[in-house]
Amino acid sequence: MKLSGVKYLADQGVENIWKNKMMAFATFCVLLISLLLVGVSILFYLNMNSMILGLTDQNEIAVYMNVGAAEDQVKAAQEAISKIENVDKVTFISKEEGLQRQKEKLPSAKEIIDDYMSDAEFMPDGFSVIVKNNDSILDTANEITAIQGVQSASASPQVAEFLKELRSVVSLIAGAIIIALAVVSMIMISNTTKASVFARREEIQIMKYVGATNAFIRMPFFVEGMITGFFAGTGAFLITWGVYRSLYKVMMKKASLMNAFGFGSIIPFDKIMIYVVIAYVVAGAVIGALGSVISTRKHIDV
Fold first, then answer.
1. pTM recorded for the entire structure
2. Phi, psi of 262 (to 5 degrees)
3. What whole-number distance in Å separates Cα of residue 175 and Cα of residue 183?
4. CA-to-CA dists, residue 208 to 1, 223, 299, 302, angstroms
5. For position 109, what pLDDT does the model report?
6. In angstroms, rounded to a whole number, what is the distance separating the alpha carbons of residues 197 and 289?
7. Between the CA of residue 264 and those of 51, 214, 259, what are the distances in Å?
8. What are 30-49's pLDDT values in tens digits?
9. Percentage, residues of the chain above pLDDT 90
10. What's the DSSP call for residue 267?
Protein backbone atom coordinates (compact mmCIF):
# COMPACT_ATOMS: atom_id res chain seq x y z
CA MET A 1 0.00 0.00 0.00
CA LYS A 2 1.26 3.44 -0.93
CA LEU A 3 2.01 6.07 1.68
CA SER A 4 -0.88 8.19 0.39
CA GLY A 5 -3.22 5.24 0.96
CA VAL A 6 -2.01 4.77 4.53
CA LYS A 7 -2.46 8.49 5.21
CA TYR A 8 -6.00 8.33 3.82
CA LEU A 9 -6.94 5.41 6.06
CA ALA A 10 -5.35 7.09 9.09
CA ASP A 11 -7.36 10.25 8.36
CA GLN A 12 -10.49 8.10 8.11
CA GLY A 13 -9.75 6.65 11.53
CA VAL A 14 -9.43 10.12 13.07
CA GLU A 15 -12.60 11.25 11.29
CA ASN A 16 -14.51 8.21 12.58
CA ILE A 17 -13.84 9.26 16.16
CA TRP A 18 -15.68 12.52 15.57
CA LYS A 19 -18.48 10.88 13.54
CA ASN A 20 -19.07 8.29 16.24
CA LYS A 21 -18.12 10.41 19.23
CA MET A 22 -20.60 8.78 21.63
CA MET A 23 -19.24 5.29 21.05
CA ALA A 24 -15.67 6.62 21.05
CA PHE A 25 -16.36 8.32 24.39
CA ALA A 26 -17.83 5.09 25.79
CA THR A 27 -14.72 3.18 24.68
CA PHE A 28 -12.52 5.89 26.18
CA CYS A 29 -14.30 5.67 29.56
CA VAL A 30 -14.14 1.87 29.68
CA LEU A 31 -10.44 1.87 28.79
CA LEU A 32 -9.75 4.60 31.34
CA ILE A 33 -11.50 2.76 34.17
CA SER A 34 -9.91 -0.58 33.22
CA LEU A 35 -6.40 0.89 33.12
CA LEU A 36 -6.97 2.63 36.46
CA LEU A 37 -8.21 -0.55 38.14
CA VAL A 38 -5.23 -2.61 37.07
CA GLY A 39 -2.67 0.22 37.39
CA VAL A 40 -3.72 1.24 40.90
CA SER A 41 -3.73 -2.40 42.01
CA ILE A 42 -0.16 -2.88 40.77
CA LEU A 43 1.01 0.34 42.45
CA PHE A 44 -0.66 -0.73 45.70
CA TYR A 45 1.12 -4.09 45.56
CA LEU A 46 4.50 -2.48 44.82
CA ASN A 47 4.11 -0.15 47.80
CA MET A 48 2.95 -2.92 50.14
CA ASN A 49 5.96 -4.98 49.10
CA SER A 50 8.27 -2.00 49.64
CA MET A 51 6.78 -1.36 53.09
CA ILE A 52 7.24 -4.99 54.12
CA LEU A 53 10.85 -4.84 52.96
CA GLY A 54 11.18 -1.65 55.03
CA LEU A 55 9.95 -3.55 58.06
CA THR A 56 12.79 -6.04 57.66
CA ASP A 57 15.24 -3.25 58.49
CA GLN A 58 13.74 -3.20 61.98
CA ASN A 59 14.79 -6.80 62.51
CA GLU A 60 18.42 -6.78 63.59
CA ILE A 61 20.94 -8.88 65.45
CA ALA A 62 22.07 -7.57 68.83
CA VAL A 63 25.70 -8.58 69.44
CA TYR A 64 27.39 -8.38 72.86
CA MET A 65 31.12 -8.76 73.43
CA ASN A 66 32.62 -10.31 76.53
CA VAL A 67 32.76 -7.86 79.44
CA GLY A 68 36.18 -6.27 79.58
CA ALA A 69 37.11 -7.20 75.99
CA ALA A 70 40.15 -5.24 74.78
CA GLU A 71 39.76 -2.53 72.15
CA ASP A 72 41.75 -4.44 69.55
CA GLN A 73 39.60 -7.52 70.13
CA VAL A 74 36.44 -5.45 69.63
CA LYS A 75 37.81 -4.03 66.36
CA ALA A 76 38.80 -7.49 65.16
CA ALA A 77 35.31 -8.79 65.92
CA GLN A 78 33.73 -5.88 64.01
CA GLU A 79 35.89 -6.64 60.97
CA ALA A 80 35.02 -10.32 61.15
CA ILE A 81 31.30 -9.57 61.38
CA SER A 82 31.49 -7.17 58.40
CA LYS A 83 33.02 -9.94 56.26
CA ILE A 84 30.07 -12.30 56.78
CA GLU A 85 28.23 -12.58 53.46
CA ASN A 86 24.73 -11.90 54.81
CA VAL A 87 25.74 -8.84 56.87
CA ASP A 88 24.71 -5.50 55.39
CA LYS A 89 25.66 -3.01 58.13
CA VAL A 90 27.49 -3.14 61.46
CA THR A 91 27.09 -0.33 64.00
CA PHE A 92 29.35 -0.22 67.05
CA ILE A 93 27.61 0.45 70.38
CA SER A 94 29.95 1.36 73.21
CA LYS A 95 29.32 0.21 76.77
CA GLU A 96 28.45 3.80 77.74
CA GLU A 97 25.91 4.08 74.92
CA GLY A 98 24.52 0.65 75.81
CA LEU A 99 24.00 1.72 79.43
CA GLN A 100 22.24 4.89 78.31
CA ARG A 101 19.93 2.86 76.06
CA GLN A 102 19.00 0.61 78.95
CA LYS A 103 18.06 3.65 81.02
CA GLU A 104 15.88 4.94 78.20
CA LYS A 105 14.21 1.57 77.68
CA LEU A 106 13.57 1.09 81.40
CA PRO A 107 12.82 4.56 82.80
CA SER A 108 11.18 3.06 85.90
CA ALA A 109 14.45 1.28 86.77
CA LYS A 110 16.68 4.30 86.14
CA GLU A 111 17.32 4.95 89.84
CA ILE A 112 18.26 1.31 90.47
CA ILE A 113 20.64 1.34 87.51
CA ASP A 114 22.22 4.58 88.72
CA ASP A 115 22.66 3.18 92.25
CA TYR A 116 24.24 -0.13 91.26
CA MET A 117 25.84 0.77 87.92
CA SER A 118 27.02 4.36 88.24
CA ASP A 119 29.39 3.78 85.35
CA ALA A 120 29.55 1.35 82.42
CA GLU A 121 32.48 -0.64 83.75
CA PHE A 122 30.47 -3.85 83.97
CA MET A 123 28.64 -3.34 80.65
CA PRO A 124 29.85 -5.06 77.45
CA ASP A 125 30.57 -3.32 74.18
CA GLY A 126 28.35 -4.45 71.36
CA PHE A 127 27.12 -4.09 67.81
CA SER A 128 23.85 -3.61 65.98
CA VAL A 129 23.92 -5.80 62.86
CA ILE A 130 21.54 -5.40 59.91
CA VAL A 131 21.37 -8.41 57.60
CA LYS A 132 20.73 -8.54 53.85
CA ASN A 133 18.43 -11.54 53.91
CA ASN A 134 16.22 -12.06 56.94
CA ASP A 135 15.50 -15.64 55.91
CA SER A 136 19.06 -16.53 57.01
CA ILE A 137 19.17 -14.33 60.12
CA LEU A 138 19.47 -17.27 62.54
CA ASP A 139 22.40 -18.78 60.62
CA THR A 140 24.07 -15.37 60.55
CA ALA A 141 23.62 -14.98 64.32
CA ASN A 142 25.28 -18.38 64.84
CA GLU A 143 28.22 -17.32 62.66
CA ILE A 144 28.66 -14.15 64.72
CA THR A 145 28.49 -16.08 68.00
CA ALA A 146 31.41 -18.23 66.83
CA ILE A 147 33.68 -15.18 66.48
CA GLN A 148 36.31 -14.86 69.20
CA GLY A 149 35.36 -12.42 71.95
CA VAL A 150 31.61 -12.44 71.18
CA GLN A 151 29.52 -13.37 74.19
CA SER A 152 26.18 -13.61 72.42
CA ALA A 153 24.32 -12.66 69.24
CA SER A 154 20.57 -12.59 69.64
CA ALA A 155 18.04 -12.37 66.81
CA SER A 156 14.35 -13.00 66.37
CA PRO A 157 13.85 -15.56 63.59
CA GLN A 158 10.12 -15.53 64.36
CA VAL A 159 9.91 -11.95 63.15
CA ALA A 160 11.81 -12.78 59.97
CA GLU A 161 9.59 -15.80 59.32
CA PHE A 162 6.47 -13.72 59.91
CA LEU A 163 7.65 -11.07 57.45
CA LYS A 164 8.46 -13.75 54.88
CA GLU A 165 4.98 -15.29 55.22
CA LEU A 166 3.34 -11.86 55.17
CA ARG A 167 5.13 -10.98 51.94
CA SER A 168 4.04 -14.28 50.37
CA VAL A 169 0.41 -13.74 51.39
CA VAL A 170 0.40 -10.15 50.11
CA SER A 171 1.94 -11.28 46.80
CA LEU A 172 -0.63 -14.07 46.43
CA ILE A 173 -3.64 -11.86 47.22
CA ALA A 174 -2.39 -8.95 45.13
CA GLY A 175 -1.62 -11.27 42.21
CA ALA A 176 -5.11 -12.78 42.34
CA ILE A 177 -6.73 -9.34 42.50
CA ILE A 178 -4.63 -7.98 39.61
CA ILE A 179 -5.41 -11.03 37.42
CA ALA A 180 -9.14 -10.81 38.25
CA LEU A 181 -9.25 -7.10 37.47
CA ALA A 182 -7.31 -7.65 34.24
CA VAL A 183 -9.80 -10.32 33.11
CA VAL A 184 -12.80 -8.15 34.01
CA SER A 185 -11.21 -5.19 32.25
CA MET A 186 -10.58 -7.21 29.07
CA ILE A 187 -14.19 -8.39 29.05
CA MET A 188 -15.44 -4.82 29.48
CA ILE A 189 -13.13 -3.54 26.73
CA SER A 190 -14.08 -6.40 24.39
CA ASN A 191 -17.81 -5.82 24.84
CA THR A 192 -17.44 -2.07 24.35
CA THR A 193 -15.35 -2.37 21.17
CA LYS A 194 -17.75 -4.99 19.81
CA ALA A 195 -20.66 -2.64 20.42
CA SER A 196 -18.76 0.18 18.70
CA VAL A 197 -18.03 -1.95 15.65
CA PHE A 198 -21.54 -3.45 15.61
CA ALA A 199 -23.02 0.04 15.30
CA ARG A 200 -21.13 0.36 11.99
CA ARG A 201 -21.59 -3.19 10.70
CA GLU A 202 -23.53 -2.06 7.62
CA GLU A 203 -20.71 0.33 6.66
CA ILE A 204 -18.19 -2.50 6.98
CA GLN A 205 -20.29 -4.91 4.95
CA ILE A 206 -20.86 -2.38 2.15
CA MET A 207 -17.09 -1.77 1.94
CA LYS A 208 -16.57 -5.53 1.79
CA TYR A 209 -19.14 -5.96 -1.00
CA VAL A 210 -17.51 -3.29 -3.19
CA GLY A 211 -14.18 -5.09 -3.00
CA ALA A 212 -12.33 -3.48 -0.09
CA THR A 213 -9.64 -5.71 1.40
CA ASN A 214 -9.70 -6.74 5.05
CA ALA A 215 -6.63 -4.59 5.77
CA PHE A 216 -8.29 -1.57 4.11
CA ILE A 217 -11.38 -2.00 6.30
CA ARG A 218 -9.50 -2.64 9.51
CA MET A 219 -6.98 0.20 9.26
CA PRO A 220 -9.40 3.03 10.23
CA PHE A 221 -10.62 0.98 13.19
CA PHE A 222 -7.02 0.29 14.18
CA VAL A 223 -6.19 4.01 14.12
CA GLU A 224 -9.41 4.91 15.92
CA GLY A 225 -8.81 2.37 18.68
CA MET A 226 -5.15 3.35 19.07
CA ILE A 227 -5.96 7.07 19.42
CA THR A 228 -8.80 6.40 21.86
CA GLY A 229 -6.56 4.09 23.89
CA PHE A 230 -3.73 6.62 23.87
CA PHE A 231 -5.94 9.34 25.37
CA ALA A 232 -7.43 6.86 27.85
CA GLY A 233 -3.91 5.92 28.98
CA THR A 234 -2.96 9.59 29.27
CA GLY A 235 -6.08 10.29 31.33
CA ALA A 236 -5.41 7.30 33.59
CA PHE A 237 -1.85 8.51 34.17
CA LEU A 238 -2.94 12.05 35.05
CA ILE A 239 -5.54 10.78 37.54
CA THR A 240 -3.06 8.35 39.10
CA TRP A 241 -0.38 11.04 39.27
CA GLY A 242 -2.69 13.54 41.02
CA VAL A 243 -4.13 11.06 43.54
CA TYR A 244 -0.79 9.35 44.26
CA ARG A 245 1.05 12.60 44.92
CA SER A 246 -1.74 13.86 47.19
CA LEU A 247 -1.75 10.67 49.25
CA TYR A 248 2.06 10.65 49.37
CA LYS A 249 2.15 14.18 50.79
CA VAL A 250 -0.43 13.29 53.45
CA MET A 251 1.46 10.17 54.50
CA MET A 252 4.83 11.92 54.54
CA LYS A 253 3.45 14.37 57.12
CA LYS A 254 3.41 11.36 59.44
CA ALA A 255 6.82 10.18 58.22
CA SER A 256 8.46 10.09 61.64
CA LEU A 257 5.69 7.90 63.05
CA MET A 258 5.73 5.63 60.01
CA ASN A 259 9.50 5.25 60.11
CA ALA A 260 9.34 4.29 63.76
CA PHE A 261 7.18 1.30 62.83
CA GLY A 262 9.09 0.53 59.63
CA PHE A 263 6.38 1.79 57.26
CA GLY A 264 8.38 4.65 55.79
CA SER A 265 9.23 2.88 52.52
CA ILE A 266 6.49 4.29 50.31
CA ILE A 267 7.78 4.72 46.75
CA PRO A 268 8.00 8.39 45.64
CA PHE A 269 6.05 8.87 42.41
CA ASP A 270 8.98 10.66 40.77
CA LYS A 271 10.97 7.42 40.87
CA ILE A 272 8.36 5.42 38.96
CA MET A 273 6.65 8.14 36.92
CA ILE A 274 8.33 7.32 33.60
CA TYR A 275 7.43 3.62 33.95
CA VAL A 276 3.83 4.42 34.88
CA VAL A 277 3.24 6.80 31.97
CA ILE A 278 4.80 4.38 29.46
CA ALA A 279 2.79 1.45 30.81
CA TYR A 280 -0.51 3.37 30.74
CA VAL A 281 -0.07 4.95 27.31
CA VAL A 282 1.34 1.86 25.59
CA ALA A 283 -1.20 -0.50 27.17
CA GLY A 284 -4.08 1.85 26.31
CA ALA A 285 -2.99 2.29 22.68
CA VAL A 286 -2.28 -1.42 22.10
CA ILE A 287 -5.46 -2.67 23.76
CA GLY A 288 -7.59 -0.06 22.00
CA ALA A 289 -6.10 -0.80 18.58
CA LEU A 290 -6.16 -4.60 18.85
CA GLY A 291 -9.61 -4.64 20.44
CA SER A 292 -11.09 -2.64 17.57
CA VAL A 293 -9.38 -4.73 14.87
CA ILE A 294 -10.33 -8.07 16.41
CA SER A 295 -13.95 -6.96 16.84
CA THR A 296 -14.27 -6.27 13.09
CA ARG A 297 -13.55 -9.91 12.19
CA LYS A 298 -17.16 -11.08 12.50
CA HIS A 299 -18.51 -8.35 10.24
CA ILE A 300 -15.71 -8.65 7.67
CA ASP A 301 -16.43 -12.33 7.04
CA VAL A 302 -19.55 -11.88 4.90
1. 0.63
2. 85, 15
3. 12
4. 18, 19, 9, 8
5. 47
6. 12
7. 7, 55, 5
8. 888 888 888 888 888 888 87
9. 6
10. P
